[in-house]
């Protein structure tokens, strides 16, 4: 599969589509998922284009996972979670729906199951409120 520069995350990176941004540095960008599978579900993407992990430049993994760790720590603290699940899909058969490499960060609480993947759009006020908590934890 070739990379489509008009995929949703490429548009978010270019600022053509709004998002609840959490963090950005030279190589990575983090923002809230609009169809959260759990409270505080967020995404980390590299700025360098690739459809997924398999066609990515491996030299970006250090920066990508440094941001995943930073945001995962903040999301866990902000959501008062007990743990964090990471997910990453490659290809339609594997459940991928947006073809720009991304890592899902899912703060987990004991006894609370994940909702459906790419299921239901959350109210923007709720996503914004959770983003504010995560941004505050990132700044702490
Ligand atoms: P994938 O299925 O490719 O692993 O994950 C794509 C994720 O992007 C899904 O969890 C979905 O809810 C999320 N998503 C899809 N469209 C948008 C959008 O326009 N904005 C944001 N912030 N997230 C999106």
CATH architecture level-2 label:
2-Layer Sandwich
What best-fitting shape do the alpha-carbon axes yield?
A: globular
Number of domains: 1
Largest sheet: 5 strands, antiparallel
Topology (elements, then pairings):
Layout (H helix, E strand, L loop, with lengths): L7 H6 L7 E4 L3 E5 L9 E5 L14 H18 L4 E5 L15 E6 L15 H16 L1
Antiparallel strand pairs: 1-2, 2-3, 3-5, 4-5
Helix pairs in contact: 2-3
Bound molecules: guanosine-5'-monophosphate (5GP).
Describe it.
With 140 residues, the chain is an alpha+beta fold. The protein has one domain (8-139): HIT family, subunit A (2-Layer Sandwich). The chain has helices at residues 8-13, 61-78, 124-139; strands at 21-24, 28-32, 42-46, 83-87, 103-108. The termini are far apart. 31% of the residues are buried. The mean pLDDT is 97. The structure holds guanosine-5'-monophosphate. The site of guanosine-5'-monophosphate has 15 residues, from strand 2.
Q: Summarize this, please?
A:
With 140 residues, the chain is of the alpha+beta class.
